Amino acid sequence: MDEGHLKQKLAPTQKPKKEDGFKEFLYNPETGAVLGRTGMSWLLIFIFYIIFYIALAAFSLLNFYLFYLTISVDAPKWTMDSSLIGTNPGVGFRPRPDQEDSTDSTLIWFKQQDPNDFKFWSKQLEEFIEKIEEIQKDAGDDKTHSCTLGTENTTNRNKSCIVDLKQLGPCTKENDFGYGQGKPCFIIKLNKIYGWKPEAYGYKDTKSEFNQELFERDMKREQGKGMPEDLARHIKQEVDKLDRKRDALLLRRHLETVWISCLGENVADMENVGEILYYPMQGIPSYYFPYMNQKGYQPPFIMVQFTNPVHGVLINVECKAFAKNVISERIARVGQTHFELLID
Amino acid sequence: MSAGKPNMGRKLSRKSSYVFENGQIPGYVHMIRQASRTSSMVSRTTDPEPRESYGSPRVSRLWKETRQPRTPATPEPPDVDERTPLLLGKTPKKPDTRSDEEAKAESVLADLRKELEMDSHKISLDELYTRLETNPENGLSNRQAELHQSKYGMNLLTPPKETPEWIKFARNLLGGFAILMWIGAFLCFAAFAVQNATKPDAPKDYLYLGIVLASVVLISGLFSYYQEAKSSRIMDSFKKLVPQHAQVIREGSQLSVCVTELAVGDVVELTYGDRIPADIRLIESFGLKVDNSALTGESEAVARSAECTHDNPLETKNLVFFSTSAIEGTGKGIVVNVGDKTLMGRIAGLASRLESSQTPIAREMDHFVHIISSVAIFFGVLFFIISVAMGYSWLDSAVFLIGIIVANVPEGLLATVTVCLALTAKRMASKNCLVKHLEAVETLGSVSVICSDKTGTLTQNKMSMSRMWYNGKMHAVERPDDPDNEGLSKIIVGDPEFMALATVARLCSRAHFKVGQVGIPDALREVVGDATESAILKRMETLLGNVEQYRFRNKKVCEIPFNSTNKYQASVHCNKSDCGSHFLLAMKGAPEKIIEQCSTILINGETKELDEQCKAEFKAAYEELGARGERVIGFCDYRLPPEEFPEGHLFNTENPEFMSFTFRFVGLISLIDPPRVNVPNAVRTCRSAGIKVVMVTGDHPLTAKAIARQVGIISPGNKTLDELAATQGVPVSDLDPSQVKVAVIHGSELIDMDEEELDAIIRNFDELVFARTSPQQKLQIVEGFQRQGTCVAVTGDGVNDSPALKKADIGISMGITGSDVSKEAADMILLDDNFASIVTGVEEGRLIFDNLKKCVFYTLTDNISELTPFFLFILARIPLPLGTISILCIDLGTDVVPAVSLAYEKGESDIMRRSPRNPLKDNLVTKQLISYAYGQIGMIESFAGMLTYFVIMSENGFLPLKLLGLRSQWDAQQINDLEDSFGQEWTYEQRKRLENTCSAAYFVSIVVCQWANLIISKTRRVSIFKKGMTNWVLNFALIFETALACVLIYTPGMDVALKMMPLRVHWWLPALPFAILIFVYDEIRRLIIRKFPGSWVEEEFYY
């Protein structure tokens, strides 16, 4: 009998290898494999994936390039209601609290006595104005022109209206925008929406004539939705200044203004906020609309100054824009904006 | 014998006592560990038994020689108490760290694994009475009975400790991905709490998301709990076996006592028809016969008497066992064991205590969950650290973590897998495979070894006549065309020799047809009587017809019933003959007994002297039949001389005078339980599918081997060592065991083997038959195979199979003949008792594994495309391209039906021609699958999604370069005038609407890519053009997925509910080129895999 052969044959063969665990996976001394692969294997798979991703990225870029041919660089493909931006512009304000601190805070809090403290705020306004100045400088005279309500053809693709930075009253850089005096200024601006222009109260549509009855109705409705009495009165006064027939065009242009009003949110806030002044006027004139991504277009804005706000009290301020086609919604924050003011 | 005893006649046994046992060791002698472990097999070869006829003693002896000599070297005295447990390795010798309770449970299990040890049947009755403080006349006193009840316990089977429902439920709520999801949900609630604390009107997004995540976990937890709740009710069926009342003698009077109150020492009266109420030692027996089929699987009624005939409690005649049934006669005995201590209690205890191992698919799912969870945790932690390092706030970082977890976890996949398994289970049920646990559906596909019981599974469990030997020739009874029956003569009805044999066969029999079965084919008529006689009766009825009438004409006038000493049975019938004799004696019995009684033989119609030549022929025929494992019966007749036995002679049964004559030998009839018709085919299919079929039976080695040959478990031409030795004419010891591939192992040899020896046998023989195995040994064999890392299926139908069924990776019981206990222990039930159904099961199991792989691939692919947006969100600081809710819409919405539809895929190639999967290597989720799904297809989908995102952003005004780094401003609620590339200023709300639109578009582009992905998932190797699109469920899924996506984005109100926004039609398009790319890319990959087998591409990307 072949004893040796027998032993070999019948010797307990290796039991199925149990997983020798993580260690072997990390480094297998037998095959020299690291993380389950040998160096060569790693190299091959690495090269493969590099080529694969380069090819895939190239394929995607090609696709995107083909798509890019279908869109214009001047105007968004979809505008107004076709776009998700819609036709209801938001209202923006400056200065804004530090985003890094908190993404959803709207508290403007400064120490009147400490220039280093309020500088943070006034500097933002300064930068905003400097930016407009820069646009004005870049655009040059052939792209911009001063506009009045009477100017014909104010809006076209080539020329845009100048925002006059000289009529901001006391809200100037030199004056620290009133922050040092406890009479802070705020920039209130309307969001740019490509192709959007305000609709006027008292007109059925862009073609029709002024209708006093409709105007009254519109004003009443706006007042019901929060247009302050004095603004309504102001608009009516402005309208009454103009002759319905003679100044028909001017009247329309004038009524196409987006009116802006800032108020304390609650009764207490209204008291605390004190007197509010608007520079250069309590609205954004129609000649800045529509925004068509014009060269040298300067975002229109107004300055709102609180001349005697109560110190040491948090004041909730709400600024609303009013036009026939601006619908104010507090939750969606369109047509209005909100911030808090605290002066120490 | 009535229908009231369901186990009756269920099993047939070779072990009819009057039948020649072919010199084999009787029954279960070797089931208990006998004598000394050191008495090596060498000494056993001196046994009178001709063991060379089956292959293994020699083999196991060789094992002994190869291992270390045992100590002590001297044989131990054959002392019962010295027996060592069967499974030495299993005796718990674990460190003390375990609690006492665990240790106790383990030692109970180890104890149950041992064979039954007792001596109550051996000691003298007086000693027994003393020991049990009882008395055969008066029984126990009531007080003693109570005492014994408290001492030995009630006669009840203790149910195993059950895990409380709430723990099971809790496990389901914490298993799989649940922990990760809980973390996600917790982070959501935390994020909401933080937001809510800082701002009174904080958005409730995170609260909703947290609730959604928690509900997903809860619902899928409930789903799997429900699946699990159909838990094993194994003990219930044991309870059903317990008889209701027993006749007991207590304090001298007989009373009927509830079985549970039976105490050790009680004197019990047994009558036919009773279930045996406990393990009882007989003190009186009047022809008591019991059916032990519930224990042994062999349903031949066995006679029981008061004498101790064997050391082995299972073999001795003076013991009857709990839950078996008394079939004939009456008896009286002393209860020696009750409840869990009984033999049945031990098997039940063993079966219910065994923990069935985790199913392969469960292992695979665990593996998969591990991988995916690791990836999720890795990315989650990595990006948490990165985002904290990048200066994001803790809250933001936690929110990112939620996104990464939600993107990484395929929330719907586990439920999908369950549905896939359920669908297959349903399909299998329609093919007569009833699956009890869903996971078992796949298990059968992983099986590499099937341990099959013989009786009732491979065979028909119905004795039938196989051959007749008369007139010096062998005759085939059935199927004369069968190759097995080549060279045999055909039966010619009417031959005088045949008629002589048939006459005896018809007359000398106690079996008879049940009355009132008119018009039923003979084969189906019910017969009352033992299996052998019934088989002969039925065959005679078909061959000659009208047996009953014939019997009526030849009235029985005297009968000598069978007894185990004589091993024959004779009857005298009125039968007038030409020579004037009035009576015919018909006799049958063990052939060697019959031939002893004969002096003449019927050859060619003439009665001849039974000379040496005739005897030699008889011997040759007898041995030939014996070697086939058949049960052989000899027949002889004799005409009683009219002088001594005139008409009307009255016979004295007690002392029959005719037994002094010598008779005329008329022939032999052999019977076998034939294999089922389609079993050989099924075995062949299994083998070609790489599955080893092993026979594990309680039956006789020779029968086992013969059946194994017939069904192909032993292939033709393969010989055992003994057979080889016989053909070569050399002693067994001169042969090298490695030459043979076949072994037939006797249960008695298993007793002497330790684990290593058993393992060596399992490894070294391809074709194995285990015969005469006890329930514990069946278990041992299954464990032996499992130690080799194989996945084992066990088929069986008896109580004795139940421990093995429970332990097996998949236990398969028989729906018709299977005992309740075996059905309970099994994972699958073959409703038609047909072994061939297993093949269906294997096929379905393999198919579902393949399809699950496809399903997992399909589902995992979009994980990466759900993850990339987060990476870019954090690293490139772009607005979020894909929201968490949208991810859930994919994972729990559009992906589900397509994934399930992959379960309906047909196989790619002949899955029954490849080997079973290697559980160590062929995982459900492999490196290749992850690499291909995540690294390639998933990335293509990501690019598609990102492209769509940039397209929509660009069309609305945000060109890609503008988006880079825009995130913090984009997400700042205070910024109400964010400028885009065209100078438009967007409020926070407007931006979010745009973002949600992008998210919806990204979602749509994933859906579009998943179209292609679903189609490529259909096939892993062949071209889709070859595979075709004939899976209509899948085609429907494509449409359904798209329709669902449309519903999700276009239904009004979805912008609020799911943050889905309606899309322009052309926003569906940017993903299309990528979908085509996926299709083409995968078609190329498969082409390379087909054309260059073994290439780098196959190695890396064939999943």
UniProtKB/TrEMBL annotation, chain A:
<comment type="similarity">
    <text>Belongs to the X(+)/potassium ATPases subunit beta family.</text>
</comment>
<feature type="transmembrane region" description="Helical">
    <location>
        <begin position="42"/>
        <end position="68"/>
    </location>
</feature>
<dbReference type="InterPro" id="IPR038702">
    <property type="entry name" value="Na/K_ATPase_sub_beta_sf"/>
</dbReference>
<keyword id="KW-0812">Transmembrane</keyword>
<keyword id="KW-0472">Membrane</keyword>
<dbReference type="Pfam" id="PF00287">
    <property type="entry name" value="Na_K-ATPase"/>
</dbReference>
<dbReference type="InterPro" id="IPR000402">
    <property type="entry name" value="Na/K_ATPase_sub_beta"/>
</dbReference>
<keyword id="KW-1133">Transmembrane helix</keyword>
<protein>
    <recommendedName>
        <fullName>Sodium/potassium-transporting ATPase subunit beta-2</fullName>
    </recommendedName>
</protein>
<keyword id="KW-0735">Signal-anchor</keyword>
UniProtKB/TrEMBL annotation, chain B:
<dbReference type="InterPro" id="IPR036412">
    <property type="entry name" value="HAD-like_sf"/>
</dbReference>
<keyword id="KW-1133">Transmembrane helix</keyword>
<protein>
    <recommendedName>
        <fullName>Cation-transporting P-type ATPase N-terminal domain-containing protein</fullName>
    </recommendedName>
</protein>
<dbReference type="InterPro" id="IPR023298">
    <property type="entry name" value="ATPase_P-typ_TM_dom_sf"/>
</dbReference>
<feature type="transmembrane region" description="Helical">
    <location>
        <begin position="368"/>
        <end position="392"/>
    </location>
</feature>
<dbReference type="InterPro" id="IPR001757">
    <property type="entry name" value="P_typ_ATPase"/>
</dbReference>
<keyword id="KW-0472">Membrane</keyword>
<feature type="compositionally biased region" description="Polar residues">
    <location>
        <begin position="36"/>
        <end position="45"/>
    </location>
</feature>
<feature type="domain" description="Cation-transporting P-type ATPase N-terminal">
    <location>
        <begin position="119"/>
        <end position="193"/>
    </location>
</feature>
<dbReference type="InterPro" id="IPR059000">
    <property type="entry name" value="ATPase_P-type_domA"/>
</dbReference>
<feature type="compositionally biased region" description="Basic and acidic residues">
    <location>
        <begin position="93"/>
        <end position="105"/>
    </location>
</feature>
<keyword id="KW-0813">Transport</keyword>
<dbReference type="InterPro" id="IPR023214">
    <property type="entry name" value="HAD_sf"/>
</dbReference>
<dbReference type="InterPro" id="IPR006068">
    <property type="entry name" value="ATPase_P-typ_cation-transptr_C"/>
</dbReference>
<keyword id="KW-0406">Ion transport</keyword>
<keyword id="KW-0812">Transmembrane</keyword>
<dbReference type="InterPro" id="IPR044492">
    <property type="entry name" value="P_typ_ATPase_HD_dom"/>
</dbReference>
<dbReference type="InterPro" id="IPR005775">
    <property type="entry name" value="P-type_ATPase_IIC"/>
</dbReference>
<keyword id="KW-0067">ATP-binding</keyword>
<feature type="transmembrane region" description="Helical">
    <location>
        <begin position="929"/>
        <end position="952"/>
    </location>
</feature>
<dbReference type="InterPro" id="IPR018303">
    <property type="entry name" value="ATPase_P-typ_P_site"/>
</dbReference>
<dbReference type="InterPro" id="IPR050510">
    <property type="entry name" value="Cation_transp_ATPase_P-type"/>
</dbReference>
